[in-house]
Specification:
With 238 residues, the chain is an alpha/beta fold. 39% of the residues lie in helices and 17% in strands.
Length: 238
């Protein structure tokens, strides 16, 4: 198995070096890794940090957008260049722990399926940590609502449709056309994979959410409405 890890990046000079090191250090026995970073028009020092990392990581490939096009557009660029037979999406911040990658791969190595999501939401709200502020509680409730809607519209129970940790076979994604440019990538790929008859296996993961003052880019209301429309749209169209 060869695993292609796609990292969309926009203005993450503070975290991208650590993320790349952690991914490079993850030991995946029997699996060859390639790492694809898509610099989505960063205006800070992200590009120079990535180039420094490239000197140390042989499997690292770098692609650049001249202007910021959005997460979905960056992931689509990555998909066009992968050579692995499985693809993992890895955010460029430190919310997701690369040590969980091995656990996400277990169902695939066991032959249980081709699509695995790392779920953050197979639990009640954690008011002492993850959902300690109203804004993050709203984010949790919005994600649960969108995941419930996904389950009802597409006929498979999903707890965390919006998760940033998505692992899927190249064969599966080759069968669908992706058009999203922003965070609507999450509902679009989920909707289209489910419509093609694929089952999504969920593996619980722990995350370390960062605050909006630390660079979090998701807009709960704006991106939530876009996700809602995307789920409804692709239920009835391609």
């Amino acid at each position: 198995m060869k695993l292609s890890i796609i990292i969309p990046v926009f203005n993450e000079e503070k975290t991208i070096s650590d993320v790349l090191k952690k991914i490079n250090d993850v030991n995946l026995p029997g699996i060859e890794k390639e790492i694809l970073v898509i610099d989505d028009g960063s205006t800070d020092a992200t590009a120079s940090v990535i180039q420094s990392a490239k000197l140390k990581i042989k499997s690292l490939k770098v692609f650049k957008h001249n202007k910021n096009l959005g997460k979905g557009a960056a992931v689509r660029t990555g998909i066009k260049h992968v050579i692995g037979n499985y693809i993992l999406i890895q955010d460029a911040d430190l919310e997701y722990n690369p040590k969980d990658i091995e656990r996400l791969l277990d169902p695939i190595k066991n032959g249980d399926g081709e699509i695995v999501y790392g779920t953050r939401l197979a639990r009640l709200p954690n008011l002492q940590r993850n959902e300690r502020t109203f804004r993050f509680l709203l984010h949790y409730l919005g994600n649960r609502f969108l995941s419930l809607l996904t389950s009802l519209l597409y006929g498979q129970w999903i707890t965390d449709m919006e998760t940033g940790y998505k692992l899927f076979s190249k064969k599966a994604v080759d069968k669908i056309d992706l058009h999203s440019r922003s965070f609507d990538f999450e509902p679009e790929i989920t909707a289209k994979l489910l419509k093609k008859g694929y089952s999504i296996i969920e593996i619980p993961i722990n995350t370390n959410p960062r605050g909006y003052d630390q660079g979090k880019k998701l807009n709960t209301v704006k991106d939530g409405i876009r996700a809602l429309w995307t789920l409804l749209k692709y239920r009835f169209t391609d």
